[in-house]
Amino acid sequence: MYFLSKSVTPVEYFLTLDLRESQHFNGDVKIKVNVETETEQLRVHAKGFKYQQVKIDDKDVDFTWDENCDFLTLRSRDGALQIGDHEIYVSYSAPYSSNTLGINKDSSGIIFTHFEPIHAREAFPCFDEPAFRAPFNLTLRVREESTVLSNSLKKSESKVGPTRIFSMEPEKNHNFALDVALCCIKFFEKYFGSKLPLKKLDLLAVPKMIAGAMENPGLLIFQADSLLITTKTIFVEKIHIALTIAHEIAHQWFGNSVSISWWSDMWVKEAFATLLQHLAIDEIYPDWNIFDWFFSRFTRTAFKSDFVGGSVLKEIAPGKEHEAFNPLSYSKGATILLHLQQKLGKDTFRNRVRALVNDNAGNTITTEDVIESLGEKETLMPWLEQDGYPIVTVTVVNWVEDNLTIEISQRSSVCNFISNYH
User: Fold this and answer.
1) Where is the active site (predicted)?
2) Catalytic residue among 122, 215, 248, 321, which?
3) pTM confidence score
């Protein structure tokens, strides 16, 4: 598995998706790219498409698809492409997904997307690596009765059909989620010292998805039981819902406005969002004592994960992106950040995090950038790089009247063992 070349970068996408067919969708995408070195081919990610047209600069090209790394390679018939701006055009079709990844259509007819970490390539040809950021222009063709939500505000609508109002069943209540979301936005705007980096924010509940929620910019998608409450919802479930909403809204700053360059730095966005969700809910609902929940759920998970080894910082190879989604990135990373906040003090920690986000808005960051901003390399790096945690044992060797002799030893928590279970 390989990375895309950094000498070709996307400048802007123009994507059209036709969602009117019942079993498949049609799409065409124009990608303006900048070529920094002369090349005879351009390469993007793509998976599962039937192609109608593939062009560079409005000219037909030869193309191949490598299923081992999902590379669609376009080769010019007119010799090498010169340094400068070029345009890729691909017209294609594909069946809807039924596993909640890519462009998914469920049994109720709801169509929604899930792209992280490597599933945007199943919706349209693209540069499907987090370091490649570029603006999108999206056009959707849908049936008249459809309600459409996207990441940003609508620019125009070519045809206005009859208006339809949809609501959840009476026993489903969205007011709690709305109240939490509004309070979280207010909290994070104050915490980061900057407005929500979006023109709007929608929260959408779907019956089923592979994750509990997804932080799409401007359009948060939740599995219904992670967003909506009912008359049967118990207190612990309300806590889970509130924390999930806070987590995804935190990502609008830490993860979307500022994102990571590659999945090896997964902890950067997930550990911060995990800590920030608790800080928000702790202020909104102080009587919940939410950090008791943090210690019981996240700190204990971090200790359990450390018991069998593994560090927060882990090299993630192309094709192994899903390995970045692990308890160490979330639980151990957040626990480390909480301890750092306790060391620095809340105000100092917040000010350094605020500077990190605001100074890098619209760009990607790495672990090195985080360490530089927080200024605590000697504190952070051992916890991020090393397996396990230290277990300190104090043994009383001798105690006679006022004379006490103790022996202190230290060992790693990482346990090497052979399991009898398979």
Assistant:
1) 248 (proton acceptor)
2) 248
3) 0.86
Please report, rounded to a whole number, the percentage of residues in the chain having pLDDT higher than 70: 93
The predicted structure's pLDDT at residue 158: 67
Which CATH architecture does the domain made up of 175-385 adopt? Orthogonal Bundle (1.10)
Give kind and range of the element (H or E) at residue 140.
Answer: strand 136-141
Options 3.40.190.10, 3.20.20.10, 2.120.10.30, 2.60.40.1730; CATH of 8-141: 2.60.40.1730
Least confident of 25-39, 59-73, 128-142, 394-408: 394-408
To the query of whether residue 87 is one of the catalytic residues in this protein, the response is no
Q: What is the 3-state secondary structure (H, E, C) of 27-48?
A: EEEEEEEEECCCECEEEEECCC
Examine the pLDDT at 169 and tell me if it is beyond 70: no
Structure-block tokens of residue 367: 């672990």
Rg of the Cα atoms in the chain: 25
**Residue 403 bridge partners (DSSP):** 400
Instruction: Decide if 153 contacts 199 (C-beta within 8 A).
Output: yes
| Binding-site residue ranges for Zn(2+) | 247, 251, 270
